[in-house]
From TrEMBL, chain A:
Organism, scientific name: Pseudaminobacter soli
Designated name of the protein: Glutathione S-transferase
Domain GST N-terminal: 1-82
UniProt cross-references to Gene3D superfamilies, sorted A to Z: 1.20.1050.10, Glutaredoxin
Cross-referenced InterPro entries: Glutathione-S-Trfase_C-like, Glutathione-S-Trfase_C_sf, Glutathione_S-Trfase, Glutathione_S-Trfase_N, Thioredoxin-like_sf
Automatic annotation (TrEMBL), chain B:
Record's keyword terms, sorted: Oxidoreductase
One of the record's GO molecular function terms: oxidoreductase activity
InterPro entries: Cholesterol_7-desaturase (IPR050584), VanA_C_cat (IPR044043)
Annotated ranges, domain Vanillate O-demethylase oxygenase-like C-terminal catalytic: 114-288
A Pfam entry, by short name: VanA_C
Official protein name in the record: (2Fe-2S)-binding protein
The organism's place on the tree of life at top rank: Bacteria
Amino acid sequence: MITLYDYELSGNCYKLRLLMSILGIDYKTVPVDFYPGREHKSDWFLRLNPLGQLPVIDDDGFVLRDAQAILVYLASKYDASGTWYPRDNPELLGQISQWLAFADGITSTSSAARLHDGMFYDFDIETVRAGAHRLFRILDEHLWFGEQEGRDWLCSADHPTIADIACFPYIMLSEEGGISRQDYPAIRRWCDRVKRIKGFVVMSGVFPAGPAKAA
Amino acid sequence: MQQSRCTDPVILNLWHPLAALVDMQPGVVFDTVLLEERVSYAHDGQGEAAAWRSFAGLPAGAAVEIDQLVETLPVKVAYGYLWTSLGTPGELFPIPEFAEADRRKLNAATLGVNVSAPRAIENFLDMGHFPYVHTDILGAEPHTEVKEYDVEISVERDEILATRCRFYQPKASTVSTEGADVDYVYRVPHPYCSVLYKSSPADESRLDVIAIFLQPIDQEHVRAHMMLCVLDDENEDKIIKRFQQTIFGQDKPILENQFPKRLPLDPRAETPIRADKSAIAYRRWLSQKGVTYGVIPAAT
């Protein structure tokens, strides 16, 4: 049984809950009082992850940290369809890795802005917001051109991959950091597509998709 | 846009919360913003606390002995929080249940929200959104009706009281085992604070107490301090805090998308429905008090 060390308001924890729900993986959670308790910096947690960061999973004794790494592990081990992390497709794997790194960039900008505004973290708010807008602009263009070619997802496949899951949460939560998605219509359409994936679940601050529009 | 600092005497003379003592390391300076003023605060771990207008010589993170400070602001330790005022404060409202020894008293979190304090109070008072925003926790379709309830403005206590509120909740608290009709009583004893009493699944003769204390950073930003004073002898602190943070995290985008951010007090500005009775009383009460900060006053 997988144990997820989890904080409800963390987008990086949410992406694992999201993938596990989509893949139908059973798991239990150990809540970590990230805020205001700073339990991720406590002795017991630092023994689990010396970086003092969430999330961490323990899969029958196999301990892994880092949201993106855990997505790779979970999809590789538990996705019977083999589509979320297609191990036999070098081009797709390369693209997925590219977007997983991009997701880390979203965390260090959009998530940082949210931590600043909501939990009073000491970041230079203008710098992190500007960084998020730069990434959102790049992503919006990528998605817009993709739509022109009939591509709905981040990577060149006709189905979503863990890249979409990795990038979704802190884009969806960006307004909590004062980063509007008003100017990114292709991002907004892509978010709506992610919300319609079978097995999609919400977290606090993320709402389900509205009723489908008539075709 | 540069907003002018607070000139509203009603708001200046109130007690305002700054932080939960449990979240403050003793003997260390913290700083925050209250009514657009930089304010620093500290406590000594022995029950003494201080607040003062920030100055460069004593930055956040510095060690401080609070009995050495001069020119401090009024200060009060109540309900687990440090309170101060930029004016001449009166009494802080009572919460008698806080003295009951068997209750769990926690700061669920202090969260920054991009909204005016009065908009946040109104959302706290609103039961109509439960099934849609707090789905399967504080409400669920088809149980969407807000039944008739009573609201009074108590002249004697100078507070709003909403009683006989009742709502079906799938999971009213951390100790709920099944859905139940839950009784609610709301108090608004302070323009920026509200105290909610709801049936306790742990003891049907008593009520859980959940309060929201809003610290106005400016007219359109608050720090929301969420106080819990509940009956639960089953769960760890962090489980109880997580429950409340989950709910507040669901409210946050709703609050931050309110427009206009300040609460309009003109009765014609927004169209209420019957379920908004407590909000109507709240707006009227703020008008009667002459509150201008965080609101759009009615035209006179």
